[in-house]
Amino acid sequence: MRLFALRPLLLLSLAATLGSTAACTDDNGNPVLFSIEDDKALGEQVAAQTDSTYRAQNKLLERSTAANQRAYTLLDGVVNKVLNSGELQYRNDFPWDVKIIKDDAIQNAFATPGGHIYVFSGLIKFLESEDQLAGVLGHEIAHADRRHTSRQLQQQYGISLLLSLVVGDNPGQLVSLAANLGQLKFSREFEQEADQYSVIYLNKTTYACDGAAGFFIKSEAQGTGNVPEFLSTHPNPGSRIEAIQTKATELNCRQRTTSNDNFNELKRIL
């Protein structure tokens, strides 16, 4: 019922945006056809499908389950520090939540449009510090906040198809998109920007702001074949380490010490 009521409004939005593309640009002058409300509506649909998929596989750690509440308290503590850094453009516009997928074999994380973040337990267990976890989460939060995810999906699927998902006209395609979101290939520009904003976000926290670089360093030490899908796209890890550390040195936020007690507890719980 809710989606049916939204349909005419979304179709009007599509007509308006297609008729005024030049006026719909991001901070860098790149065209963005989706409105913020479209981002939120698409993200809600994709997140619901993602939840359903992993719930059916008994891999989604439900927040409502008492046994999972401590894990979410610990993870939320990290996420909220990044979200409340004062540097997010859409902090108060997107719903922002994070969910854990219990799969130790997968070292991955991804974001839907509108700020729904998913983290695999295998990634958390791979990381060595809370700084690294904050850096990786910052990277994914940046993809949502800088609207990389919706822009990349527009390029890959086309805006008409995406809006059909929002209004519920294409459930089969929604299943496919949700299943493949973790393997979405971002452009070089988007990956570089997400890396840079991870540093910018962490600069306003207590974390060492080059945490994402620490993740890359460990990945390279174990061989490039071990770099998870969500950070394996170009540019190569070596150049990304350098760029992250250069930005962190510029902001003078590399030499910070963070207790790993909560992080280690989270890993034990998972």
TrEMBL record:
Annotated keywords: Hydrolase, Metal-binding, Metalloprotease, Protease, Signal, Zinc
Gene3D superfamilies named among the record's database cross-references: Metalloproteases ('zincins'), catalytic domain
N-terminal signal peptide: 1-22
Statement: the UniProt record of this protein carries the keyword Metal-binding: yes
Cofactor, how bound (note): Binds 1 zinc ion per subunit.
Coiled coil regions, renumbered to chain: none
Similarity section: Belongs to the peptidase M48 family.
Protein's name according to its UniProt entry: M48 family metalloprotease
Organism: Hymenobacter telluris
Phylogenetic lineage: Bacteria, Pseudomonadati, Bacteroidota, Cytophagia, Cytophagales
